[in-house]
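Z., the sequence and structure:
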Amino acid sequence: MRVSLNPQFLQYDPVCDSGINVGYNEMEQTVGVGESKRYLWHADKEYGACLIQSFGDMRNHRYHGLFGAVIVEPPGAEWYRNFTRKKDSFAEQAVITAPGVENFREYVLFIQNGIRLLDVKGNLIQTALDDNGEPVDAEDTGEKGYNYRSERFANRLAKDPRTWKVFSSKVHGDPATPVWKAYSGDRVVFRAMMPADKPRNTSLAIHDHLWREQQRDPFSRIIPLQGGISIGNKFDIELLGGAGCPGDYLYRSGSFAWDVESGMWGIFRVVKQTLGCKCKGMYRKVRECFR
C-alpha cells in the first residue's frame, strides 16, 4: 500500500510536491512501507482551512480516515489550546492571536459521512434501515460523525428512552463529539470540512447563531445554516456578533433522518466569564503594553 499527501489551495511544484503520480512525470510522489518523502508547499495568502488527502488510493484511503487539514492563519499568528495559555499547533479548538487582528477562537470540524462502524460484538451498525420494504438509497447508508467521533441516538435511548431528553447532558453526559467552548461575545470561527465519503450533500446548523454566507462580502446573505456541504468542500464560518448568551447550543446536520440520529451533532458551549477571568485578561493586556 502506498500513500501520499496533497493539500488544497497551497502552491507547490506539481512534478515534485503534489503527491499525485501523473502521466510521464519522473518523480515518484507516493511512499510505501518504510519509505519517506518531504513535500514543499507554500501558503501565499490566508486560505483558512485546507484539506489534506492521500492520492496513493484516492477512493479507499479517505474512506478509512486517512485525511487531515492545514489551517492557514494570518501572518505572525500564534496558536494556544482553548481555555489555556499552552501553545499547541495541533489543537482541534484553539485561540488564535496575530498582530493587528482581533483574537478569535477557532474550531476545526471534519464532517464525516458513510462511516463503517461496528458494535462491541463486531456487528455492522446500520441506522438507515429499509423503509416500507424499499431499500435505502446507497448514498444514505453508513454512519455519520464529526472528527472521528459519533453520538448515536440508539446508545442514548437505550439508557433513557425519553426522546425529548436525547440531547441532555444532565441525563446522558456530554456527547463523544467535540464540545466547543467560548465565552459570551468571543469572536468565533468554525473551520468546517468534508473529506469523505458519500456524495450526498449535508449541511451545518449552529443553533441561535448567524453568519455571512460569504465571509469577506459585507453584502452577502446572513444565514443560520450552511448547505451544499459535500466531499472536498470547506467553509470558514465566522459567527456574527461572536458567541451568544451563556448556555449550550446544538451544532448539527440539517438532516435529522438519518444524519443527526446516527451521530452527526454536538454541543457549542458558551460560558459566562467570571470576574477572576476578566481580571486575568486585563492583567495580561497591561503587562503586554509595558513589555
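The CA atoms of residues 165 and 250 lie 13 Å apart. Helices lie at 60-63, 153-159, 169-172, 256-260, 275-289.

Let me know what you think.
H.
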